[in-house]
């Protein structure tokens, strides 16, 4: 009996002890503003006990013990660990993540913590995007990510050139791939920057291989805002400002022009130095521009539905007269919780833009036209190249009147782009989920161009009369162009997450994607349409002849399969493997499919025992990767058939219609293939106050498309494109950031990045390679050449070594044959910089905030094409006049006045180095009571591009364009602009 009683007591005591040791706790997770955070994961460390917060941020954990630690994680916030005590109630406030290492980045078909990455990805958040107001977000991120070179244009509504880790292709498309909420697109010009949550830039093969033959030029992933649970919130943002040219070229005045021209003509009496007119042509075609922007965003949500809606209107008047642009954007993003395991989301946007484009050639015309010519004669007509009065017939230059050209340039463009993404997510089990996503984009473009041919004829020469105008020629003409395009993508993939023995963490993504894109255009022309703009329609004008051109673009279809596995052991040792198989209708049979892959390794050294207690090293990770990518943006692999080759045949020599194939398509033509090595070191010191990243990359495009000239025996003329080159980009990226708080009232951040890149056409594999010439400046001179051993876009010029006793250039006769020709030309480097860098500073003190961004580059050259494009009688820069060679004041470096067409030479080549302040913003947040209708308001002032230090004598050293043509050549370039803005943000 005693034994039985002892056993019963022991069992009861054990049960009682167990009951007292385990319990159920609950709590609420909120952000610093006390807003509940639904969807946060709460997990007991080391145990399979977890919960996810509901709509109100509540969670419950059962069978926990005193002393257990639970960890709360939520996207965009710092993870937090809480030790369980005797209490059963745990209110938790999460802090927003200030460390880049804690960020969760988008990696393509999924997300991943930055500290777990084995690839190189840069993230730019919403604050960094919107602190520099711009038409597109791409312009705002210049200098904010290492390895990303952005070359903007000052023109309203323009798209900047974007190169990620250098230029890897000569004739394939150079632009990166943009992914907006799952939609694959060509640019983000239609996205309101205020709608963006963050931008993730994928740079190396380990992160890019998931996009296969679309990823060789880099991928920019844009995530837009979503609705938040809670009461309705309204945010209103607006700014207004003025724009002007950043740098103005000092042109010769009338007196200087007259003296220079007389010396060039060898006739001291041709022009009187006291001229009646002294026209500043640049001032005549420009104005003080303006910019205004207003955005409104609404966010609200219940337990099952959360929605975000925004509307924005942007309007800009360019510094070029009548060059206007405006854009209306609308966005609706909604998330639906259909059940605990099924969610559905939609992101739909529309962007309608209107533009009055103007030909930028008027800047070149204004540069060259003589100041002694008035805008109009006293009798009324436009002046031009025919002298200072309507009675003077002899011309002394062939330059037109830029004011006339501008006023008769009547163009209107309208563009509507619609985008939509629809995503279905199903959590099959705790460890496996399925995603189905469909994205579609359609674009409708319209252009209308009216030309008053009669007026152009009359104003081109003051001696002309209406009777001289041909009766057969149209007095006016109207061209209307319509372009429609579409693209859609359908993704299906599963994601598996599994942890074994609490040490081995696996994440596997398997999926397939299908794409299609196509379009067409229709262009019609009508003659003798009435002059009034209300009548500019194809329904008006002469019925005959009608000119119509219609073309349907080739439909391109892609089908792809992809897989990615992420593995880490105890958060220390990382592995990522990616595979993608792409098939494209772009290429011939046998070349349609390609296989692309990558793998990456990482070692989180700071997780090792010997560093875990370090007071200095907060985070340290070494990583490396290798992969192969593709670029399918190569010229279409289709033969063209030339007709109208009529020929006489037979005894009667009757005319027969003929045709031929005059091109040859290489059957090996397929996508360009790129292979890349990347080694990176990521670090954080002093509790991550100092953080940074160093990356070395080596990227080889081994199938670069190049032109070849086949021997005549093949029976074809011209060039043929074929995989014939190897282009290498090798570089180093360094990013550093320091952030700290001083007391409770002051915080600051200092950051910067620098990129070193070396570009070279390393090898040409085809013996018939045609060394491509380019960079024509329109006076019979070219400036560039593609050749083995030189960077793409290299300048190929004669070398000016001095000036002789007659004031003429002395050129280096390289081959000593006594003749100066193409055989004496040298290479002088590329317009692409060897180094570019960005600097950013920010600070907050009480309710004040300050931000400064700067950008610069060095190690490149640019060509002053305006200065070099002479035919005779054009104006010159004041510095050319002041420093010119004369018998009384000879020079060893500056030539004597001349009206000869100058040879393309190093004289016109200048340094492209510059340093510019991109943005200075000072803001003040107005405090309001908690129960006030207005929750917060901030007023700010911004100076954009207020200062530049440049060696180039032209308008701007940033000259976008085709790398093998006029990129880096200032000829018809839009000047850089500066803006001063006042803005207001209001939260309701």
CATH class of the domain at 2-93: Mainly Beta
List how many beta strands DSSP finds.
49
The helix tally amounts to 12
CATH architecture identity of the domain at 2-93 = Sandwich
Overall shape:
globular
Strand content: over 45%
Averaged pLDDT, please? 87
What is the fold-level CATH name, i.e. the topology of the domain at 2-93? Answer: Immunoglobulin-like
Q: Could you give the distance between the termini?
A: 76 Å
Summing up helix and strand content along with how strands pair, one would put the structural category as: mainly beta
Helix content: under 10%
How large is the radius of gyration?
Answer: 33 Å
Taking the sheet with the most strands, its summary is:
22 strands, antiparallel, barrel
The residue ranges in which pLDDT falls below 50 over 5 or more consecutive positions are: 5-20, 387-391, 637-645
Summarize the entry for a quick read.
With 988 residues, this protein is mostly beta strands.
Helices and strands in order:
Elements: H1 2-21, E1 22-30, E2 41-44, E3 50-52, E4 58-65, E5 69-73, E6 80-83, E7 89-93, E8 104-106, E9 111-113, E10 121-125, H2 126-130, H3 137-140, E11 148-151, E12 161-164, E13 177-180, E14 183-185, E15 196-202, H4 205-208, E16 219-224, E17 230-245, H5 254-265, H6 281-285, E18 289-301, E19 305-317, E20 324-337, E21 342-356, H7 361-368, H8 402-407, E22 410-429, E23 432-451, H9 453-459, E24 477-500, E25 504-527, E26 547-552, E27 556-569, E28 573-584, E29 593-604, H10 609-612, E30 617-631, E31 647-649, E32 654-656, E33 672-685, E34 690-708, E35 720-742, E36 746-764, E37 773-774, E38 784-785, E39 794-797, E40 800-803, E41 809-811, E42 826-830, E43 835-845, E44 848-858, E45 861-863, H11 865-868, H12 878-882, E46 909-911, E47 914-926, E48 936-950, E49 977-987
Parallel strand pairs: 1-7, 13-16
Antiparallel strand pairs: 1-4, 2-3, 2-5, 5-6, 8-9, 10-15, 11-12, 13-14, 15-16, 17-18, 17-49, 18-19, 19-20, 20-21, 21-22, 22-23, 23-24, 24-25, 25-26, 25-27, 27-28, 28-29, 29-30, 30-33, 31-32, 33-34, 34-35, 35-36, 36-43, 37-38, 39-42, 40-41, 43-44, 44-47, 45-46, 47-48, 48-49
